[in-house]
Every structure is written in structure tokens, then in C-alpha cells.
Write a structure and sequence with these properties.
about 325 residues, alpha/beta, Metallo-beta-lactamase, Chain A, Rossmann fold, 2 domains, seven-stranded mixed sheet, six-stranded mixed sheet, 8 helices
């Protein structure tokens, strides 16, 4: 059995760095070579000399960053392997948002799997997660605590049913807004979805690259005020917070974070991350020899797997 390199991937100021391939993953400041797991702003930034990502991830990035030279973008197809130096790399669907990827890296007979953000719940707006085995699982731990269990998204979206008011629904512009649109279309067909102008181009990209037809209308003030009170207006966080005195609407914010449910009219726990049981199931399928945790607190996982195998935070360089 090949030896695991404890420093194969380490946390540096710029991002996660692999010195054995001389590349970064999800670097936040410009580097020479950067692998991008998905297009959310805390993972995807511009300015790198060479970037590897899925086609749709680049589409989202080009919508946000207007001046990205084509020569800097190396488009990656799910399941196709390529090499950077001596490291063999494969992008695998992560199920987080459209185009999101886990990144499998094999070096000297050992496979290291960087999950990025991922979810196991069904979501017709993005590629379903694929599970592969790896020697080292490098997992996000955003909600890695036993007391956290994400409810079924269908049950949550049905909380909006039979409400005799329009609803202002706060959510993130990329991924969450499109998932909510699909859920409302499917389970609340009597409701009309209005989307904020910042979300509209992202919905359009989902329609171009995804396999889920979305029904929605670009927001305008007249549409919200006139006619039946059957509108659900999707707005990004800053806009949602600016409407704290809005009247004649019910307010909800779709998130797995409890703090974002406070002072709203409806609690709506819809998350695009794994919860505790999801992580345990994922680990049982990946069958790693070690787990390295990122993006959260891994202490509960360390306690749970104590005596079975090593669980630790990723090393810092």
C-alpha cells in the first residue's frame, strides 16, 4: 500500500497548494495554475495565468468577470483524466451547483479527493453527485456536527403553499435561486416566480447548459403589486436585507444556517451542502484511509472516527 503524503495538498494564503504538481485549487488571489471546483465567489476568482474548470463554471465566471482571456481557460470534461506534471487529475460531479466538481488527484499510487462544496440531496438543476473511492478524502465540513440534519427540500418548499400573500424569498444568486425556481415550479405550480435582475443572467446560463426547464419572470414593480397575491420574488442577500421594512409580503430566506432564519415570517431550511448524516454516508462509500477537513470545524468528525482512521484539519504551509 502506497504511503500517503501528509503535505500533498496544504493550505496557503493564496489557496490550497499541491507542490507535487505545482498547482493550486480554488485560489483566492492570482497564481500561475489554478483548478476551480465551482463558480461561487469564495472558490472562483479571476486573474490566474491558467485555470482549469468545467465549461459552465467558466460561463458563470465570464458573467461575473468581464475580462477573462480565453487563453487562460482550460475547459475540463467530467470523467476525463489529464495530467499536471506527475499528478493525474479527474473532475467528478459534486452535486452542489451546475458544473460543480470534486477533484480527484492521483500521485504515486495514492488518490486524494478534494470535494469542494457538495451535496447528496436530489437537485434537478445540476449534475448529481458521483461517488468514487479515494485514499484521502479532503472534505468540506460546513455542517459537520451531529445535531445538524437538513430537512427534505420538498417538505420545506411546501411551507410556502396556501399563503395568502406574496413572498419575498432571499437566496444566493448562483445555484440556490435556480434550485428554488425548479422546486417552486414543480411543487407550487400556482405560484409565479419573479427573479431579481442580478439573478436573471444566471438563470439564462442554467437554461443554456442545464437539463431543467425553469419558469420565471424578470421582476418589475408592477407585476409584484398587480393581480393575484401568488408571486414569489427571489432576491439576493443584500437586496433582501434592504427590504427589512417591506409590507404586504411574507419574508423567508432559504439557507441551512439558523441565524439567517431569525426575524423572518417563514423558516426555510434548504441547503446545498452536506449535513452530518450525508457526510457519514459519503465517507462509507469513499472508504478513505484518512480524512482532511476544510471549510468548517472537523472536530466532531475527529471524535466520531477516533480509533478507526486519521481525521485532521488540512495542514497549513
Amino acid at each position: 500500500m502506497s504511503e500517503i503524503l501528509e503535505d500533498f495538498l496544504v493550505r496557503k494564503h493564496e489557496g490550497y497548494y499541491c507542490r507535487y504538481g505545482q498547482f493550486y485549487i480554488d485560489a483566492l488571489s492570482p497564481v500561475a495554475v489554478n483548478l476551480i471546483s465551482h463558480a461561487h465567489g469564495d472558490h472562483a476568482t479571476a486573474g490566474h495565468r491558467l485555470m482549469y474548470a468545467t465549461d459552465v463554471t467558466f460561463a458563470f465566471m465570464k458573467n461575473k468577470f468581464s475580462k477573462m482571456p480565453e487563453s487562460s481557460m482550460q475547459k475540463v470534461v467530467f470523467g476525463e483524466s489529464f495530467r499536471i506534471g506527475e499528478v493525474e487529475i479527474v473532475f467528478i460531479p459534486a452535486g452542489h451547483i451546475l458544473g460543480s466538481a470534486q477533484i480527484s488527484m492521483t500521485y504515486e499510487g495514492v488518490t486524494y479527493l478534494y470535494t469542494g462544496d457538495y451535496k447528496l440531496q436530489e437537485d434537478p438543476t445540476c449534475e448529481p453527485i458521483e461517488i468514487v473511492q479515494a485514499d484521502v478524502l479532503i472534505t468540506e465540513s460546513t455542517f459537520a456536527r451531529p445535531e445538524i440534519a437538513h430537512p427534505a427540500p420538498v417538505a420545506e418548499i411546501l411551507k410556502l403553499k396556501d399563503r395568502p400573500f406574496n413572498i419575498m424569498l432571499g437566496c444566493y444568486t448562483l445555484g440556490k435561486a435556480q434550485r428554488l425556481t425548479a422546486l417552486i415550479n414543480m411543487y407550487l405550480p400556482e405560484r409565479e416566480v419573479l427573479v431579481n435582475h442580478k439573478m436573471h443572467p444566471v438563470h439564462r446560463i442554467y437554461e443554456q447548459y442545464g437539463n431543467c426547464k425553469l419558469r420565471y419572470t424578470l421582476y418589475n414593480r408592477k407585476a409584484m403589486k398587480d393581480g393575484l397575491s401568488n408571486k414569489i420574488y427571489l432576491v439576493p442577500p443584500l437586496t433582501f436585507n434592504s427590504y427589512f421594512r417591506a409590507t404586504n409580503v411574507l419574508k423567508a430566506f432559504a439557507s441551512g444556517w439558523e441565524r439567517l432564519q431569525r426575524q423572518n415570517d417563514i423558516e426555510l431550511y434548504i441547503s446545498d451542502h452536506v449535513d452530518w448524516e450525508d457526510i457519514l454516508h459519503f465517507v462509507s462509500q469513499v472508504k478513505p484511509r484518512q480524512i482532511w477537513t476544510i471549510h468548517g470545524d472537523g472536530r466532531a468528525l475527529q471524535k466520531h472516527f477516533d480509533g478507526q482512521f486519521v481525521v485532521r484539519d488540512i495542514l497549513s504551509a
